[in-house]
Amino acid sequence: MTLDIIEESKRLEDSGAGEILDWTFEHFDASKVKMSTSFGADGMALLHMMHSRGHRPKIFTIDTGRLFQETYNVWQKVIDQYGVKIEVYGPDPADLHELVESGGPNMFYQSVENRRKCCEIRKVRPLNKALQDTDVWITALRRDQAPSRATTPILSHSSQYDLLKVCPLVNWSEVNAWEYIRNNGIPYNELHDKGYPTIGCSPCCRPVPPASDRRAGRWWWESGDDKECGIHIEDGKIVRKKKANFVI
């Protein structure tokens, strides 16, 4: 069976996040489905929902080498509470050595170009490894997280990785995520209680006042609305090509 992803995505707009997950595992082999997580609040809600509905995809994270200790703490809690295996991907040691040797350990503060280069090596390249031999990539993106994510579809074809990208939480708000977390006793990163709305690498995040833009704490020395690491930005480059069972 060949699925029309654009039409299916439109049809699923009125479906709940759990129903979107059910649809995914009805149409695709769980062994070819992967969920990425950085152990943020949205990811914890999505992981719990998937686990409670009996879905068991592969779960992976990217350890950039610059994470907060609090992130490692919640990572351990996830393993202990859910009994899941977390696949770990990180930067290539040779790439990292060249990056630090040529620019220093904090070169990312010097320019947007340098920061994006750091993200490329620490996040984007490891992601490409993580998504090898994968048909479906599940993420916890929400449309209200940033202007660059406002039109994120529920289902889309990633031309860069040649797979189906599924975003079950796109229609959720931050309030929805936290209500779900508190109602279900889900572990979460304690930095959220200290004013960090989003959490990535420790040198690149800081707490923000409650009324501030929720992405203001990310790469806080940069200006503009397009603060992204590159993981969720399609550059039009085909990293690899395989036969897919859907059309766009």
Can you walk through the features of this model?
With 248 residues, the protein is of the alpha/beta class. It has one domain: HUPs (Rossmann fold, 3-Layer(aba) Sandwich), CATH 3.40.50. Helix content is 34%, strand content 11%. The protein has seven helices and eight strands. The strands form two sheets. It has a six-stranded mixed sheet with strand order 4-3-2-5-7-6. It has a two-stranded parallel ribbon with strand order 1-8. Strand 2, helix 3 and strand 3 form a beta-alpha-beta unit. Helix 3 packs across helix 7. The longest helix has 19 residues. It starts with a strand and ends with a strand. About 2% of the residues have low confidence.
Largest sheet: 6 strands, mixed
- CATH class category: Alpha Beta
| Number of structural domains | 1
β-sheet strand percentage: 5-15%
Strand order of the largest sheet: 4-3-2-5-7-6
CATH architecture: 3-Layer(aba) Sandwich
Structural class: alpha/beta
What is the share of helical residues?
25-40%
Mean pLDDT: 90
What spatial form do the alpha-carbon principal axes imply? Answer: globular
Low-pLDDT stretches are 236-241
Supply Rg: 18 Å
Strand segment count: 8
Could you tell me how far the N terminus lies from the C terminus, measured between alpha carbons in angstroms? 14 Å
Q: Count of helical segments?
A: 7
What is the name of the CATH superfamily? HUPs
CATH fold topology: Rossmann fold
